[in-house]
Amino acid sequence: MTLADRIVIMRNGIIEQVGTPDEIYNAPSSTYVAGFIGSPTMNLVPGELRGDARGLALRLAGDADMVLPPDVARRFGRHADRPLTIGIRPEDFVIAGDGGIEVTPDVIEPLGSDTLLFFTLNGSEMVARLPPRALAAHAERVRLEPDLGQLHLFDAKSGRSLAAGEVS
């Protein structure tokens, strides 16, 4: 990705996406591309968007709903109440106070420049990239909050991105 002006991502001889490294990283066209680019790769987990009196909220793994900011709700509102795959980059998690989701670390891997926190959510293995001393190496429970402005939504059946209004 550091040497290319444009990248072609192929699967089984068929082009999945063509674009600059930034386009492919920041706007993957499918779960295949999202899971291919990045280190660690994007977290992909079943979830849904639900509308209620507070606005549009993200539900991951039956955990507490997280209300989306108005600009994100406008962008994704038409995809409420349908099966989705939610994409969250590892670097888009932060340690949360009261909000977010509570997870049990499977592995905490200090790397010096950052710390990787591996956990399981709704049967999906996930990873968060956190600041170097964000948590103790023996933490038993951690509250994480995804940057809701950086969500990626994919159709659960086709795996196609919903960012451009694509519907299966």
Any key phrases for this structure?
168 residues, mainly beta, OB fold (Dihydrolipoamide Acetyltransferase, E2P), five-stranded antiparallel beta sheet, three-stranded antiparallel beta sheet
- Series of H and E elements: EEHHEEEHEEEEEEEE
Largest sheet: 5 strands, antiparallel
Number of strands: 13
CATH C-level class of the largest domain is Mainly Beta
Alpha plus pi helix count: 3
* Weakly predicted, low-confidence segments: none
Mean pLDDT, to the nearest integer, reads 87
Main sheet: strand order: 5-4-3-6-13
Rg, Cα atoms, Å: 16 Å
Distance from N terminus to C terminus (CA atoms, Å) equals 30 Å
Annotated CATH homologous superfamily of the largest domain = Nucleic acid-binding proteins
Strand share of the residues?
35-45%
Number of domains: 2
Helix content: 10-25%
What is the overall shape? globular
> Could you say which structural class the secondary elements and strand pairing correspond to?
mainly beta
Look up the CATH topology of the largest domain.
OB fold (Dihydrolipoamide Acetyltransferase, E2P)
CATH architecture of the largest domain: Beta Barrel
Task: Give the helix/strand layout.
Blueprint: E1 7-11, E2 14-19, H1 21-26, H2 31-36, E3 43-52, E4 55-60, E5 66-67, H3 70-76, E6 84-88, E7 93-95, E8 101-103, E9 105-110, E10 115-121, E11 124-130, E12 142-146, E13 152-155
Antiparallel strand pairs: 1-2, 3-4, 3-6, 4-5, 6-13, 7-12, 8-12, 9-10, 10-11
In short:
The chain has 168 residues and is mostly beta strands. It has three helices and 13 strands.
